[in-house]
Design a protein that fits this description.
The complex is a heterotrimer.
Chain A lengths: L36 H19 L22 H9 L3 H8 L5 H14 L9 H19 L4 E3 L9 E6 L8 H9 L12 E6 L22 E6 L8 H5 L5 E3 L5 E3 L9 H5 L5 E3 L14 E3 L11 E3 L4 H4 L6 H5 L5 E5 L6 H8 L2 E2 L11 E4 L2
Parallel strand pairs in A: 1-8, 2-12
Antiparallel strand pairs in A: 2-10, 3-4, 5-6, 7-9, 11-12
Chain B lengths: L1 H19 L9 H8 L10 H4 L4 E6 L2 E6 L18 H4 L23 H4 L8 E2 L5 E2 L5 H7 L1 H9 L18 H4 L17 H9 L4
Antiparallel strand pairs in B: 1-2, 3-4
Helix pairs in contact in B: 6-7
Chain C lengths: L1 H17 L4 H27 L14 H14 L2 H9 L6 H25 L22 H28 L6 H27 L12 H27 L6 H31 L6 H8 L8 H19 L1 H4 L2 H19 L1 H7 L15 H29 L11
The chains are: A alpha+beta, B mainly alpha, C mainly alpha.
């Protein structure tokens, strides 16, 4: 393990299999750690059970779509595990000393620990970023026998993402909403959606309280216009300011992102957002295995766990590769324009310079990078 | 003794205040930031790879040069002269087989437009402008631009229409006929593809009192 | 070494004291333990199902937990109202009350922390918040300020009484030069914890209901009414159940504090109501929802219309010397005031902040059984902790608990 880590890290001995077994975390003599599984198998059963429970809980029995280390708690082990995670080290000893039979389970435990006690993604070096996405991909494979492709691309140079929404073009078909849900692996149970389309009456101006954002009738409805909202990726984001653990931050290319594994779930950011841009996983998010989008980014559409925030990332897994966000691609009317604000030849720049643009709640000083305009 | 404590606490408070002063951003607003940071622009991301499968042609309109999808290869029965071997006027007749019977023109009214407004009846592989100048099928947007000038301006700049693959340069924009059926260009009414039952329950059921 | 021995003896002695008592005492402690167990069971359900087991939603994302947290910060801060006259102004009257007040502050702070933990989506990663090990977003996030000041206040409020009791336990006089500076710091600190907690809400431009300059001062005023009111009630109980002597004069002095704070609080309430309803803007909708209901949604009406009359009535009664000096009336008024402020500064403050949502949408909030169970459990825990602390402190102060040197 690299020396420049900024947090506690745990070595369970997996990484140095070739070295002598004395180097494993328990510090005991050779006989009691990892070297003699056969003799101690029976007596070690309980020990092993406790170790796995302490670190990954029900991970072994997981089926399907769960990719994250959402440590499931049953009533009996809830408090045990809570203590285990809080008391760094106690569990480490049990795990590393456990005598296991399958290397897979051992590997899962190892990954579970490293994930539980890894640092904040924002502060990771590129190698550490690569390390965590490798672990996440490997653990998904171990659990489902299926592969996912996760990346950790950083922001490209001279890129600042911006978005423009044409309120005279939007017809309210909501193709963007469903494309977003599918692209970003949003929880199907609670029907989480990042995008809202508000149906407004002509002649009344922006009366959001009177607008319907969950209509179901033929659209466009007579005498109405449509306006979409989502996370506006503010340049001065209040949500980032208030986060007590810097689990959410603004990337170099202007995307406001969340490290789902670092979030403690206090929901302060949700209270601070004036645009209803943030969503919370009130229960365990579920996506049917065959609907999982397997092209993922660490900061984007990878699977979330319960009790963490999530939000629109302008589809970071797509946009950092030069593609458009899923909503832009899905929009049948071309109401959504996306591009690089720093490129003087980009279409978004042309829109900002030539159309009559405005933003929502500009008086709050949040500087959203999401503009509205009309034909 | 007491004075000293007081001084210490004041200094401490001042220190905390200074420490908590946020670093002022370099820019006052996002427009300043855009202007300030885009000066030497050298973005490297491209969408060339994403465009590799699409056949594109480059056009220049005013100060804008960009790519649009090639059209002729997408029209099923191109080239037209494979059937329309003679001008339409000569092919029309009672015994000739009917073609394109399913096309119903739903574009402006019949006083303003008919088939010949765009299609060249003499030279079927070409379109023609209002003044009778030939236009290639690949450049059909020029026909639309004759009437829809404001949309054309927006399209050239990028405010109207969609991109082919991604946001990254080179710019490849869909042309008019990629989204609009030229014979019936407006979008139709339909049902939204999504309805959030959970939100509906949450809002309408209230608290049950 | 010697201090450690004394400490061990103190722990043993206090364990001995808190496990012995009258039948009523045992019944009370048994009841608290039962409620705590129920609360823990409810919390385990919440851990398993996630926060969907509560009544909170994306619209109203803070509920009963944060409401109680906010209120209890006020209760904790109120201990200062007793500390200041005793230690700084050298008013002997409060000497007996101050230990009780600080015990109350400790219990309230522990409850605060418990409520915050209960509200977290990921309690297993709370170590991310520990400075040094995790990443602490200081000074940007007001929540980090709150963590610092609450824990600091907890430390002060444990250490001062502990020092005094520790000395008294050994039959020694506590040194003024040791605890008076601590007491002075704690006076500033108490104002700090409540102001910082108010800033937690006040700093959110997204929520106009909270985003007003009066929120902080009003927090202080209501805290200095509700906190000492609770202290009066607790002193009344202690007076009737233990031999600990608390003079009428002390209670009357605290009553004076309650009265003044309640009056100031009322003035601020009037000012707030004037601002919201004289020239109502779009930003007054939350206040409309709270007081009159909005678009047919009116879940908070019965609560707030209980709180306001109670508040006004109690303040008016307390204002008259004749009534205030009658202890029975005083206790009743304190109870009314406590309930009124609990409603008003609990979910009467938190929930309307979220209603209507950023886009005018209304989803009402009603706590679930699990949520209420956890809340009551935490209150029981607070009462439990306070009882233990108070019993030990009273034992020492009465001279029942004394260090017996084994050698002697």
């Amino acid at each position: 393990m690299s020396d420049n880590k900024k947090w506690f890290s745990l070595d369970l001995g997996l990484n140095n299999k070739k070295e002598s077994s004395g180097s494993c975390g328990c510090g005991k003599s050779e006989g009691s750690c990892n070297s003699s599984p056969k003799e101690e198998e029976l007596s070690a059963d309980e020990f092993y059970e406790a170790a796995i429970n302490a670190s990954i809980g029900e991970e072994r029995h997981r089926d399907g779509f769960e990719q994250v280390f959402d440590v499931k708690m049953d009533r009996r082990s809830a408090f045990k595990k809570l203590t285990a995670s809080l008391l760094i080290g106690a569990g480490a000893v049990t795990t590393s000393c456990s005598v296991t039979t399958g290397s897979d389970t051992k590997e899962k435990a190892q990954i579970g620990w490293e994930e539980q006690f890894k640092g904040n993604y924002k502060l990771m070096t590129d190698e550490e970023k690569q390390g965590t996405i490798n672990r996440l991909m490997r653990s998904y494979e171990l659990r489902t026998d299926k592969k996912i492709n996760m990346t950790a691309e950083n922001a490209a140079e001279d890129v600042l993402f911006g978005y423009a929404f044409n309120i005279s073009k939007c017809q309210g078909y909501m193709n963007c909403v469903s494309a977003c849900v599918e692209e970003n692996n949003q929880d199907r149970n609670s029907e989480m959606q990042y995008i809202r389309i508000h149906e407004m009456k002509d002649g009344e101006g922006f009366k959001f309280d009177k607008a319907d954002d969950n209509y179901y009738h033929e659209v466009p409805a007579e005498g109405h216009f449509y306006m979409g909202t989502q996370c506006f990726h503010c340049d001065n984001p209040p949500c980032v300011e208030v986060c007590p653990v810097q689990a959410t931050w603004k990337e170099e290319d202007g995307l406001v992102v969340i490290d789902y594994d670092w979030c403690v779930g206090c929901r302060y950011c949700m209270a601070a957002c004036p645009y209803d841009g943030r969503r919370f996983n009130w229960s365990k998010p579920e996506v049917p295995e065959n609907e999982v989008n397997k092209n993922q980014h660490y900061l984007g559409n990878r699977m979330r766990k319960k009790g963490v925030m999530e939000k629109c990332t302008f589809c970071v897994q797509r946009t950092r590769k030069g593609k458009n966000p899923a909503c832009v691609e899905a929009c049948p009317t071309g109401a959504r324009i996306f591009g690089n604000l720093l490129d003087p030849n980009s279409t978004i720049r042309w829109v900002l310079e030539n159309k009559k643009v405005f933003r929502l709640k500009e008086d709050l000083g949040t500087e959203p990078k999401f503009w509205y305009f009309m034909d | 003794m007491k004075n000293r404590t007081l001084i210490y606490s004041v200094v401490l408070l001042l220190g905390i205040f200074l420490f908590s002063c946020k670093e002022e951003g370099k820019y006052h607003s996002i427009s300043d930031k855009i202007e300030g940071e885009s000066k030497p622009y050298h973005g490297i991301l491209t969408s060339e790879e994403l465009l590799a499968d699409t056949e594109l042609i480059e056009i220049t309109e005013g100060e804008h040069t960009f790519l649009i999808p090639e059209r002729k290869g997408q029209i099923k029965s191109f080239a037209c002269i494979e059937c329309h071997s003679k001008p339409v006027s000569q092919m029309m007749g009672k015994d000739a087989p009917k073609a394109h019977w399913n096309i119903k023109l739903n574009h402006a009214n019949s006083d303003a437009m008919n088939c010949a407004t765009c299609h060249n009846g003499e030279e079927m592989n070409q379109l023609n402008t209002l003044t009778g100048k030939n236009i290639d099928f690949n450049l059909s947007y020029k026909l639309c631009a004759q009437c829809h000038s404001s949309q054309f301006e927006d399209w050239k700049g990028g405010a109207h229409g969609k991109k082919v693959a991604g946001w990254a340069p080179p710019r490849a924009s869909n042309t008019c006929v990629n989204c609009h059926n030229p014979h019936s260009p407006s979008f139709e009414k339909r049902w939204p593809v999504q309805f959030n039952t959970k939100t509906a329950i949450e809002r309408n059921e209230g608290l049950g009192h | 070494m010697g201090a450690f021995k004394v400490f061990r003896s103190l722990v043993v002695d206090s364990l001995d004291t808190i496990t012995k008592g009258s039948k009523k005492y045992h019944l009370w402690m048994g009841f608290l333990i039962l409620v705590m167990l129920i609360g823990m069971y409810c919390y385990s359900i919440q851990l398993e199902e996630g926060l969907s087991a509560t009544g909170m939603s994306d619209r109203v994302s803070w509920g009963l937990y944060i409401s109680n947290f906010t209120f209890l910060v006020g209760v904790a801060a109120a201990a200062v109202m007793l500390v200041m006259p005793t230690y700084v102004l050298k008013d002997i009257d409060f000497k007996q009350a101050v230990l009780i007040g600080e015990g109350l502050a400790v219990a309230a702070l522990i409850m605060c922390l418990a409520f915050v933990v209960a509200d977290m989506g990921g309690p297993s990663v709370l170590w991310h918040m520990i400075p040094g090990i995790g990443v602490f977003n200081f000074p940007n996030s007001m929540l980090t300020w709150d963590v610092i000041v609450l824990n600091g206040y907890l430390f002060i409020n444990i250490s001062i009484p502990f020092y005094i009791l520790f000395k008294h336990y050994q039959n020694k006089e506590a040194k003024k030069s040791v605890y008076v500076p601590g007491a002075i710091i704690s006076v500033f600190w108490a104002v700090g914890i409540h102001l910082v907690t108010a800033f937690l809400y006040q700093g959110l431009q997204a929520r106009p209901f909270w985003n007003n300059a009066l929120l902080g001062p009003r927090f202080l005023a209501s805290a200095f009414a509700a906190g000492p009111a609770l202290i009066i009630l607790v002193l009344a109980v202690i007076r009737s159940f233990t031999a600990f002597k608390i003079e009428d004069k002390t209670i009357k002095k605290i009553a004076m504090i309650v009265t003044v704070a309640a009056q100031i609080n009322l003035i601020m309430l009037v000012s707030e109501l004037f601002k919201e309803f004289y020239a109502p803007t779009h930003h007054s909708e939350s206040a409309y929802y709270l007081f009159f209901g909005l678009h047919g949604k009116n879940a908070l009406l019965p609560w707030i219309w209980t709180a306001i009359p109670l508040n006004v009535l109690a303040t008016v009664i307390l204002t008259f010397n004749k009534f205030r000096n009658n202890l029975k009336v005083l206790y009743f008024c304190c109870f009314m005031l406590f309930v009124a402020i609990w409603i008003e500064k609990g979910f009467g403050l938190i929930v309307p902040g979220f209603i209507p949502g950023p886009y005018g949408k209304i989803v009402e909030y009603l706590p679930t059984g699990v949520e209420i169970g956890v809340t009551i459990g935490i209150w029981a825990m607070g009462a439990f902790i306070f009882t233990i602390l108070a019993k030990t402190a009273i034992g020492i102060e009465l001279g029942e608990l004394r260090y017996k040197d084994k050698k002697a």
